[in-house]
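Hello Y.,

Per our agreement to keep a running log of every chain we model this quarter, I'm adding this entry. I've kept the format consistent with earlier entries: sequence first, then predicted structure.
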Amino acid sequence: MTRQRGFRFEFLQGPLVRVSGAGAAVDVPIEWAFGAGDQAVTFVSRVDRRNYVELFFSYYRAMHGLATPGQQNLKPAGLGEAVGLYYKTRDPALGIDGCFACHSTGPIKFDADGSIRPRELGVRCEDCHGPGESHVAAAKRRDPATRRLIDNPGQWSPERQVELCGKCHRAPRAPSGEIDFNYPWNIRHQPPYLIRSACFLRTGSLSCVTCHEPHEPINKTASSYNQKCGVCHRQTPWACGSNCVDCHMPRVSPQPPLRFTNHWIGVYRSANKLRPPER
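Predicted structure for the entry above:
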């Protein structure tokens, strides 16, 4: 695999990747993999106490191969820049610690050398339900209070449920002007789009878990989503086809082969699939 200015990537055992070019080479360990693999898996390595690097390549499921997310236009000036995109270890806005926090469960810790150490790998029960030690202990002794000793987001208001998902999928009510809805890459942040939908604003009952079962892999069957829409839209207009989502939640590709569903539910009458026209 190569990138601009003749830099080459060679995969070694370890796992290691050797980056070479301009008469030099460096071996970089592949330490972390981010993503469930439904769209892609991005690889990250620690550089030093203050920095991590998102490696130049990601695995894309749609093409069963490697490509680059958002780095293809960067022109590395040297071997160090060719490795990938660098992030500070800690930063409230753009630190890699935020990536670790959303892709793991529980508070992350920092070792003496600055390495990030997740408490529990992956997104697990306590990420949504809160600390569960007292809940588990009560269940073991068959305590009637068991259910009260754990958070149950299923009983929350729709807006609070969306806010919970928005901790990682982007806060639904970001400050005005923070989100550019004409920028295709922002489509992957679902909550800010969903709360602007008439379906959300008018029903008072729509949330992320209306359509997505949080304890199961994402459902990709069109008929299941049609049934969800049919709860309110009992009679569909004659012009509608057989799949509600194709028209009212169009797929947007900010960069091939990635495609994300636009959660701003609406009537799209033009080639612009980033936001429905104002009524």
